[in-house]
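Q: My collaborator sent me two sequences in one message, no labels, and asked for predicted structures for both. Can we handle them in order? The first one she listed is below.
A: Yes, handling them in the order given. First sequence, followed by its structure tokens:
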Amino acid sequence: MYVENLDQLIANIENLHSCRSTDNPEELVFFKKLIGKGICFVACKVDGEIVFSPSRFAGYFNNNYEVHSQVDIEKNGGGTNNAIRKLLGTELPDFYLEDLYLEYCAKYDINPDKRQRRYWNIDIATKNDVEIFQEIKDALNINVKSETQQERIIQERLGQGEFRRNLIRYWKGCAITGISKLEFLRASHIKPWRDCDNFERLDPFNGLLLTPNYDVLFDKGYITFDNEGVIRISNSISKEERMIFGINENVSIEIDEKHEKYMQYHREIVFQG
């Protein structure tokens, strides 16, 4: 039986993390193993600390160390994932939460498996604008004095992250190839960022999730799509280049009517014909 509401889910999370301070060494081993080997985690705060609970523990009704240890519970978390999705939506990769997860593992001497993890977030605020802006300045080694410049850089950084998350939810993988390994995929605006208003920059219908080869070609206007989703290829690309890039002339994608105005802009302004 799976959790049916948020209170049940949080109660399980609190039960799991009570194992951190137990006098029973077996409970501590149990806790470390679950945290280190999890794939899908619920992130939330317990007693002011951000904690991470794998779905295969958090998703069962009235779960705790004794119950989980005595019952032969499935190990892949499929049923618990579905139960939590009903409450919190789809779990997604999150670079910020991944960093916090690794810090959490280090704090409790846990060696996490090397794998791509996904997260649900229960009321954990993302980094504030000051922190994000400082990271950007450090990474780019820039000196920005203007508040207007600071705001622009911050909003671009924040907006691009939200835009990518929305595209992942919509497309689930590359719009052309179907590849779903997220680290291989790029969030590509149909109508370029520089030409968009604030709404268009975050509108998921103004974007495609693409593998790097198709992202470059689409961004530079060497390919586009008609309103039926059928690919159009620029005459400036030779047959040899098409083979190198792996461009299939029979490619088509699923176009919603909400994509059409953006795709028309791409065909008329960006596409090289």
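Q: And the one she listed second?
A: Here it is, processed independently of the first:
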Amino acid sequence: MADTTHSQTSAPWTAPVASGPLTGDVALPGSKSLTNRELVLAALADGPSTIHLPLHSRDSALMVAALRQLGVGIEAVEPESAPNPYGPDLRITPAAMTGGVRIDCGLAGTVMRFLPPLAALATGTVTVDGDPYARKRPMGAIIRALGELGVDVTDDGDGAMPFSFTGSGSVRGGALTIDASASSQFVSGLLLSAPRFDEGLHLTHAGERLPSLPHIEMTVAALRARGVRVDEPAVGEWVVHPGPIAARDVTIEPDLSNAAPFAVAALVAGGTVRIRTWPTATTQVGADLETLLPLWGATVTRDGDDLVVDGGVGVLGGASIPGLELDLTRGGELAPALVALAALADGTTTVTGIGHLRGHETDRLAALAADLHRTGGSVQELDDGLRIEPAPLHGAAWAAYEDHRMATAGAVIGLVTPGVVVDDIGTTAKTLPQFPELWAQLVATAGPSSPSAPGA
């Protein structure tokens, strides 16, 4: 697998400004969410699996490295059909897992929440740690769950990394209640390994709210596709029966959440953006862009296998973008790109259902508010979201906070705001290492400015 790890430092990057409406054509690499789920299931399967068109990024590289440390065989192989411009396929061969390792999770939520239940099936001690900010990310639900399932866990009592546990080669499983209000990944992480628990798993969520439910639906669909029996007797309750996990070759869909800034660009600069090979049916929450973007005035259509977003003349051409009342409980990862769009609107936008984003790669609510304030924006933090008021924006430093989606939000603002300088565009390597190149190619498609455009 290509080295896509990121040192979290890169030269400041001045976001390119669009000169006019776009005629973009974007082919995105594979979904991080699907790639890391399929890596875990392939590692636990009954035989070898091949993952076609996987994502090659920091998050997926960390997952591959962790599985290899535990003894799983993972080999990069060239595809038999057309080559993947973003990297080779992956051949995964399960093996008896052994501990005595220290897992580096970086800032990857899918690694820090998915790997511990799997690694608990190994024999020996495993220590789980990550980047400095990762030690602030919520982990208590997984730590407590492992203890309640009979795993010998040692931590500092703060519900965070680093922590260690000693596996005996099996996990008891059975009934378990957790509070997954901070992240749906707690549920997915436990469900993915549950077929290998002695008693399977009867998991119940007991918190007030459950964010990003589509990601759990993605997990359940991936399990069922490998022959695992999963029952859902009630909302917030799952029963995974113990049994085999079928070996399976899978093809990973393009990452639809990474499509957000590209799709939003059509409304900002105007013109059209075509996103290649958009699935007709998917469990990815990025699919909600198809219904969300028309709320701001975009025309979204299907053209063969592609999704085409037509933003009309866009903000750059003088279009009026409305303010909205938006609940993003289903898909909080879309919030940074949509908040950036809202900052360019002519009315007030209130985005709710995203309080859990305070526990992501950074506190995304505070980070978005701080960056937009620096560029002249008017933003109020709410308990569960943000309220964005219309305000003229200007160029300024834009902090990425080691968060890929913060970096791409700065790029969206910079399309029509000269002088937006992202301090660390390299952090996009977390899920989309090619972002700077793809963004530059998109902006290069811009035509001449309209006579009605600002500054024309």
